[in-house]
Specification:
Length: about 50
């Protein structure tokens, strides 16, 4: 699965894999910083 999170004023896009056999622990597959991130937009084009 994917998630986006803020860290020290930067926003990161992370791709994770969960292992159901190991108490649903996660392994980070990718971690990229998103430059110039301004916020989230919704389906009705309202920025959050």
């Amino acid at each position: 699965f994917y998630t986006i999170y803020p860290l020290n004023g930067e926003v990161h896009y992370v791709k994770l894999r969960q292992h159901p056999d190991d108490h649903y622990s996660c392994i980070i597959l990718e971690d990229e910083q998103i430059p110039k991130f301004r916020g989230f937009s919704t389906d009705d084009d309202n920025e959050v």
